[in-house]
Amino acid sequence: MQLDQIRTEISDTDQQLLALLAKRRQLALAVANAKLAQNKPIRDQKREQELLISLIEHGKTLNIDAQYVTRLYHVIIEDSVLQQQAKIQGQLNNLDRDIVRVAFLGGQGSYSYWAAQKYFTRRAEQLIELGCDSFHDIVHSVETGHADYAVLPIENTSSGSINEVYDLLQHTRLSIVGELTHPIAHCLLGLEDTDLSKIRQVCAHPQVIAQCSQFLQGLANVKVEYCDSTSDAFSRVKQLQDPSVVAIGGEAGGDLYGLQVLTRELANQKDNVSRFIVVARKPVQVAKAIPAKTTFIMYTGQQPGALVDALLVLKQHGISMAKLESRPINGNPWEEMFYVDVFANLNDYAMTRALEELNKITRFIKVLGCYASEDIEPTQVIA
Length: 383
Ligand SMILES: O=C(O)C(=O)C[C@]1(C(=O)O)C=C[C@@H](O)C=C1
Known about the structure:
The protein is of the alpha/beta class and 383 residues long. The chain folds into 4 domains: 14-92, Chorismate mutase (Chorismate Mutase Domain, subunit A), CATH 1.20.59; 97-184 and 273-280, 3-Layer(aba) Sandwich (D-Maltodextrin-Binding Protein, domain 2), CATH 3.40.190; 187-263, Periplasmic binding protein-like II (D-Maltodextrin-Binding Protein, domain 2, 3-Layer(aba) Sandwich), CATH 3.40.190.10; 292-372, ACT domain (Alpha-Beta Plaits). The chain has helices at 3-37, 45-61, 66-92, 111-120, 135-143, 163-171, 206-211, 213-217, 230-240, 251-256, 306-316, 349-361, and strands spanning 97-105, 124-132, 149-156, 160-161, 175-183, 187-190, 201-204, 223-226, 245-249, 260-263, 273-280, 292-299, 321-329, 332-342, 364-372. The structure holds prephenic acid. One of its GO terms (biological process) is L-phenylalanine biosynthetic process.
C-alpha cells in the first residue's frame, strides 16, 4: 500500500474510534439515569475492575499490552464518571443552561482559561469568557452578576496554597459549587528565532515563577518580569517581538500566540497539578450518588487545644479531612482562620451533627460550599 492509502485507512480507523467513544459516552449517561432510579452510586469499582481485567485479557489476544489497555481505560472511565456526575448535578440543581458566563484569570491561553474550558465543556453549550486581571476582579464580577461563575486556582502541588484566593473566600458570599484538577506543564516559550543562550528577560505570573524557582535560579543575568497572568506573559512576548524575551506557560496557550516551545518540564515537581474551585452566587446540592466535598471556615479562638477539639468532632463523626489550611484574620494579629475541606455531603446526617457541635465550640463558622468531588481515582486491578 502507498503511504497516502495507509494514512487514509488510519484516519478512517481514528474516526471509527471516536464514533465508538461517543457511543460509549451516551451509554454511560443512560447508566447514570438507571442508577439514579435505583439509588445506586455512580462509581462501581467492582464493575470497573471486571471490565478492565476482561479487556486486558482480550488485549493479549490482539497483541495489545496490558499497560496500554490500562492507560486508555483510565482516561475513558474518568470521562465516563465525570460526564455522569455533571449530568446528575445539572439535573438536581436545574443547571442545564445553554450559555454560561465564566470569569477567570487572564485571557485565552492562561491556565485558568483551560481549566474553565475543561469544567464547562461538560456543562454548557456555549461559554462567554470573561478574562480578568486579578482574583479580586474575578470574584467581584460574579458578585455583581456580570458573570455566572468564577474559576479560581486554589492550590498547586509545587507552590502550595494560593493565599490570595483563600483570603477572598473569607469575605465573599459566593459559594463553592465545583472543583477540578488540571495538570500544569510549564514550558519556556519564545519567538521562532529565539536563541536560548541570548535570553534577557522571562515573563511569567508570580505563581508560575514560584513553581519554576529552581529552573529560574539556574538562569544567570536574566530579568524576571512579573505578569498578571500567563496569557499576559504570552502577549507581552508577542507584542515586543524581541527574541531575547520569553514567557513561561503551557504549550497549548503559547500556541495561540504563535510562540514556540524552547524547553519543557520547568516546574520544581514533576507532577505539577493545580486544583481549581468553581464559585457561584447560589450554592448547589450534591446528589447522594456522587462523592461530595464540603469546605467550611472556622475561627476556634486561641484557648489551648481549641483546634484539636474541633478536629475531634470530625473524627467522632467519622468524617475524613481532605485539607486543612490557616490564614491570618485581617485586623486581629496572630489569630488564624482555619479552612477545612472534608469528604462529606453537607446533607449527610454525620456532617449536620458535626457542624452543630462545631457551632457550639467555635467562635465563628461558615460553610463555603458543598460540591461534587472530581478526584477520580484510577481503577485498581487486584493482581
Ligand atoms: O456500568 C456502570 O455502572 C457505569 O456507570 C459505567 C462505567 C463505565 O464507564 O464503564 C462508569 C462508572 C462505573 O464506575 C462503572 C462503569
